[in-house]
Structures are given as C-alpha cells and as structure tokens.
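Morning run. Coffee first, then this:
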Amino acid sequence: MGATQTISATEFKAQCLDILDRLDNGEFEQVTITKQGRTVAVLLPLQPNAKAVTDLYGCMRGSVIIADDCDLTAPVFDEPFDAAEGILHR
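And here it is:
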C-alpha cells in the first residue's frame, strides 16, 4: 500500500483532484489535512462493499456476556401491559 501523506488545507485546496486520484490509485494509504498545524480531516480510500461488510460483520463478537442463568426468552413483567387493558398513556 502507499504512504501516509500530511498536507495543509491550502495545499489540499490547490491539489484536491490530484490527491483524490492518487488516493484512489493506491499511492496514498491516507491523507491527513491540517489547518494551522492541527489535523482537521483524514482521507482514506473507499473500501469495496464486500470488504466493508466483511470488516463490519462480527465486529462486536465476544463483547457481550450473557450469564448462564439468564433466559432471554422469559417474560420481563408478570403484570399485564397497559395497552392490553386499553390504557395508552399514564
């Protein structure tokens, strides 16, 4: 993959289309745009849809732990719901 490039907002404004083309061609891995020495934006090449879905699918796997004694299908309330009795607002 290409290199990481850091440029000022002024340079980016002057070379925008060229930078976008180079990013798309893989010459840059990312482009960081600065304004007065402070990062204001980071440009990354667009991922193909298949890769984006692959990266997203399962990204939360292992982050939730459900206790063994917890039944997720059991009712939460024992009393009837207000809507079942015709009460819409309380």
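The mean pLDDT is 88. Good start to the day.
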